[in-house]
Amino acid sequence: QVQLVESGGGSVQAGESLRLSCVASEYTYNSDCMAWFRQAPGKEREEVAIMYRAGGTTYYADSVKGRFTASQDNAKNTIFLQMNSVNSEDTGMYYCAAGAPREYCNKGFYYYRNWGQGTQVTVSS
User: Residue 2 has what pLDDT?
Assistant: First the structure.
């Protein structure tokens, strides 16, 4: 029934760190790619990190490069997003997603079929 479940969000101050987790079903975890997206009120849902499962490569949005790191634990069907040095622009609902074909993994949220419920991250100054 539930294919993706995010956790780890919360309220933090600028400069602090946060670690998000996403537990997936076996089928969903074997997707060509998995991704982290985020969305703030009044803004489009944007890519944060795109993880190509087979090749072991990860691409990050320019806004988070050098601050965020995506990782995985295959034994637990879990991916993570380590968020360091957060700022107010990182505020938003963070989603774990899967189910996009490899050639569409970096084409936007529309191509992802499976989504978690989201976990809220709020950064204050």
Answer: 65
Task: Express each pLDDT in 74-98 by its tens digit.
Answer: 999 999 999 999 999 999 999 999 9
- Rounded to whole angstroms, what are the CA distances from 102 to 6, 30, 55, 78? 22, 12, 11, 19
Nearest CA-CA partner of 20 in 98, 87, 81: 81
pLDDT tens string 52-66: 988 889 999 999 999
User: Taking 90 as the threshold, does the pLDDT of residue 43 lie above it?
Assistant: yes
Query: What does the alpha-carbon distance between residue 91 and residue 10 come to, in Å, rounded to a whole number?
Result: 10
For strand 68-73 and strand 119-124, is the pairing parallel, antiparallel, or unpaired? unpaired
Place of tokens 């320019």: 62
- Alpha helix ranges (H) inside the chain: 26-29
In this structure, are residues 114 and 62 in contact, taking their beta carbons and an 8 Å threshold?
A: no
Antiparallel, parallel or unpaired: β 4-7 and 68-73: unpaired
Supply 102's token pair. Answer: 């490899």
